[in-house]
Amino acid sequence: MGSAASAHSGQKPPCSLKNRLLDKCEKPRSTHDFSDCVSRVLCSPQHLMKCNMSDTDLSYSSSLSEDSISYGCHYPMYTMDMATFLSLDTLRPHEEMQQKGRVHQWKRGDGPIIFLSHQWTSFSHPDHTNKQLHTVQAVLRAIIRGEMADLFTDPFEWRAFARANAPFTTTSLHGEWELLSPQGMAEEVAHSQIWIDYACVPQYAENQKERLLAIDSIPWYIDHSMNFFVVVPPIEHSELPGVSCDYYSWKQRGWCRLEEQVQELGLAPLQQAHLHRRPVVIHGERAVSSFDAHDNFYTGWNQTTSIFHGDFTCCRFNHIAKVIENGKEVERAIPCDKERIRPMVAALWDRKIAHEAEMPRDVKSLSMWRWISHKSIMLADDHAEEDDAQLKCLDDITTKYMLLTHGMEGFIKDQMYQCESHISLTRIFFPDLPADRLAGFMEYNTAYKDLMKHPEKHLLQVCLSHVVAEGHLGMVRLLHEEHGADLHFHHPWGLSMLEYAAGKGHCRVLKYILDHGGAAHINDKTPRIGISALDRACKAGLLDVLRLLVEYGVSLETTRFDGSSAVHAAASMGHVHILRELHTLGCNMSAPNLAGDTPRMIAKRCHHLRAAAFLESLE
């Protein structure tokens, strides 16, 4: 069991992190203040926490401090059948569940798995109020009754989820895809197995070695799960008054981000992306949502969603825990979980890239660049922007992104396929797009095709888009100053390089573009739905980018075509820090969009209660 304690002594522990990272770890990175707390773990034969105060086993600190996690099943995956899970009155530790025969080793043929991801609400119990358990039980019962479509607070999200849950499936390009139905989902869930950490991972002190092996196996468990449910009904933390455990706080946790990223990096090919479904986020007994495919594409894979920018308890407490040994309280160094998981996360990205490289060319041309360009962003452990030392010339870029694998003719063919795919996807995902905006998008697409008449120039611009997305200022400078690349080039989606840099949080690249003519285009919007650089920064929660855009004179009144403002963008993602900044800058915090929705209404609809409360306090 664990409890909060007084402030720690301030002594820095030995750690495999570099000193500069230790310095950064002294202050919390999220909006929650845990600075008054010290990890205190009682080494007794009672259940331990999975990852709240000490994310690693203290008795193995010395041997694990330099160790790392490798991907694989290091400990059997235990699950429970649906009937057993629905009968629980409270969550019990794994050992007790195993003794009573309520969990068993999963084997193929047992049925699909629902992986339940959640944030612990107490230092000694994962769900001290049982609210998470009762909420997910109510949702599962409703799904089994065939009511899943009714649980989504936004009908569009159910339609998107039902479309095989893949925003970029090749079936969407070449024909009709099979839709999930509430009845089909009911049958599947009724026969599903449940995985949840407390019941399926060893908890007792005498099983600490097995517990670590199970925690290290979580990526493998997720890979073998059909559904990924995020359980986040708002609950106040038991030992931290005023700290709410909800969807926003879940997204800040490093371990939760790891689970989410593993789910995103699943190996199902795009034609079978329904095998790794879009997550279901459970906010209440009759309130679920999912990730918006369009917004997730543009706000995912940036600094604000990186595992290594997330909150890790070991870093919060400067890698020191207080332990009771022989009746005395002593300080013990604990390893840094970020360092332990880094090789495994890198291997997952390498695995995904290698897997995508084996896909058919049409699939590869659509998605390969995303995985390659985003790997370095997602593995960075601080917000410092660094160039890829292996990129020194244009040939290095074409090699890294495999652009000329099939020669220049093959490259142009792949690019032409991208253009046609983007048109098809636009008609699928934006069926109600007004004719004038569709025409505007087609103009961009036509201009992109015209550029293909000049293959060398087109190759240059594609290389530019990749290094901008990855944040390599040196290569952006080289392509522009030595090769004549156009910094105001638009991707076939309509995104400008300025928007790319803003959306990914690359302030150095963004400033360079602004200093070289980009300021004149600072308020430009994409032709389909009118997203601007300001919108992207606010939606992604990138405060430094927002401030840089303001410095260069961005219009804070810029809106999407539906009238949604930067305030709406921040509210939709729950970014209170962005909302505070916009309020300080004098933005209208309650102006409705064309549908009559105010930012507060959007925040509430998206279940961001803290953002909604902040906006309400301003009215």
TrEMBL record:
<keyword id="KW-0040">ANK repeat</keyword>
<feature type="repeat" description="ANK">
    <location>
        <begin position="562"/>
        <end position="594"/>
    </location>
</feature>
<dbReference type="Pfam" id="PF12796">
    <property type="entry name" value="Ank_2"/>
</dbReference>
<dbReference type="InterPro" id="IPR050889">
    <property type="entry name" value="Dendritic_Spine_Reg/Scaffold"/>
</dbReference>
<dbReference type="Pfam" id="PF00023">
    <property type="entry name" value="Ank"/>
</dbReference>
<dbReference type="InterPro" id="IPR036770">
    <property type="entry name" value="Ankyrin_rpt-contain_sf"/>
</dbReference>
<dbReference type="InterPro" id="IPR002110">
    <property type="entry name" value="Ankyrin_rpt"/>
</dbReference>
<keyword id="KW-0677">Repeat</keyword>
<feature type="repeat" description="ANK">
    <location>
        <begin position="493"/>
        <end position="525"/>
    </location>
</feature>
<protein>
    <submittedName>
        <fullName>Uncharacterized protein</fullName>
    </submittedName>
</protein>
